[in-house]
Design goal:
alpha/beta; D-Maltodextrin-Binding Protein, domain 2; 11 strands; about 35% helix; about 15% strand; globular
Length: about 325
């Protein structure tokens, strides 16, 4: 009987990994345990700090800082979570904030400074709207996934355990908040809180049209010791992730599986705006540009000691020209 190596994968409970989780897709040579019952911030901490998993979906911005700090990890160019971020900038409605430049000199909450959602939005605000990240006083609720020394002129306040950035925004203790998720005051329609970008989808579409960036939130981290002991795991897992996504996307084309009236129209709009595979893995020209931008923000914001080329951030997956495409006996 052939022997497979046991590996753990921690990731979100996404449709695009469902065939891996239910065993429809079996990575060649690997006995995979998939763990999905934890939130993102817990998973990132447990992988980066505790080293609990062999592989894990982890914060892209925290990963860049971890590599710069010498953590014994690498990553596969598998991007399980992407999201445009203009719709996750929230304001207190009593503060007179009507446009991005009004954030200059304001108090802005974040979950933590390395959260990728905030990292992207800081860069976007600076480059697209003229709001320097150092012109803002930041209030972080959580400890960082990875310790770093902020530049001396970067204003970051770490909140005590009993403080919540969502509550502080609603009560006016801070002026604005950049979050990774929909916050409770928005869900509950609290009149004290609103979005900065009222037509955020239009802003996001314009941003993509200009930059071709569909922001990558997470990369697929893998321990160096796994790669050293079994270097073939990287390519085999990459193939498995691609196979799982292909199966899922084929299934998701069918509007009958989703209880939404205009689901198929939304699917077709996405394809028209973002292309046939906006969730593509690998270092395509577009993915390379996106990761170069994110890593560039890390250096620009003083989070890493040197610029990180994209090729240094990901495992080499080359199999030779025209190999690995068509299987023949």
């Amino acid at each position: 009987m052939s022997k497979k190596i046991p590996l753990t994968l921690a990731c979100g409970d996404y449709e695009i990994i469902r065939p891996l989780k239910d065993g429809t897709v079996k990575p060649d040579g690997i006995d995979l345990t998939v763990l999905t019952a934890m939130d993102s911030t817990t998973r990132h901490w447990r992988f980066l700090r505790n080293r609990d998993f062999d592989m894990a979906e982890t914060s892209a911005s925290s990963y860049v800082v971890a590599r710069d700090s010498g953590y014994e990890i690498n990553a596969l160019p598998v991007f399980l979570h992407r999201r445009f971020r203009h719709g996750f900038v929230f304001i207190n409605t009593s503060k007179g904030i009507t446009k991005p430049s009004d954030l200059i000199g304001k108090k802005v909450g974040i979950k933590s400074f390395l959260v990728t959602a905030g990292h992207w939005m800081r860069g976007i605000l600076e480059h697209e709207y003229g709001v320097p990240h150092k012109s803002i006083e930041w209030f972080a609720e959580l400890d960082e996934d990875v310790d770093f020394t902020p530049p001396a002129d970067l204003k970051i306040n770490r909140l005590p355990h009993d403080k919540s950035v969502e509550q502080m925004l609603a009560e006016g203790e801070i002026d604005a908040l950049i979050h990774s998720s929909l916050i409770k005051p928005i869900v509950n329609k609290d009149p004290r809180v609103a979005r900065l970008f009222l037509d955020y989808k239009a802003e996001e579409k314009a941003y993509f049209a200009k930059t071709s960036i569909f922001p990558i939130m997470h990369v697929l981290g893998i321990k160096n010791e796994v790669l050293e002991a079994h270097p073939w795991v990287a390519i085999n897992m990459f193939h498995a992730f691609n196979e799982a996504k292909a199966i899922t996307m084929k299934r998701m084309e069918n509007p009958r599986i989703v209880p939404l009236a205009w689901y198929r129209e939304a699917w077709e709009e996405q394809e028209e705006l973002l292309g046939s595979d906006p969730w593509e893995y690998g270092l395509s020209e577009r993915n390379r540009h996106t990761m170069e931008t994110l890593a560039g923000y890390s250096y620009e914001q003083g989070l890493v000691k040197r610029p990180w080329p994209v090729d240094e951030l990901f495992v080499e997956l080359g199999q030779g020209r025209k190999r690995g495409v068509e299987f023949r006996i």
